[in-house]
Amino acid sequence: MPKMKTKSSAKKRFKITGTGKVKAAAAGKQHGMIKRSNKFIRDARGTMVLSGPDTKLVKKFLPNSL
To answer: SS3 for 21-63, per residue?
Structure first.
């Protein structure tokens, strides 16, 4: 039986916490900050924990990090 492979794009974008939650950077901050509000830029700073359905999807891409 072959080994399960990790999706390279997922391992670059997500981290699994010790309790099994998934951390990710905020979306929409790569470019175009002039048209974004200061509130959006402030709220999108740092990382955030993904919701349940998104966590389930990401964990499918990262089988070795469970």
So the answer is: CEEEECCCCCCCHHHCCHHHHHHCCCEEECCHHHHHHHHHHCH
pLDDT in tens, 1-17: 899 999 999 999 999 99
- How far, in Å, CA of 28 to CA of 65, rounded? 26
Task: Give the pLDDT confidence score for residue 12 in this predicted structure.
Answer: 94
- Token pair 């990262």 is found at 62
Radius of gyration of the chain (CA): 15
Burial 23-52 (b: 16+ CB within 10 A, else e): ebeeeeeeeeeeeeeeeeeeeeeeeeebee
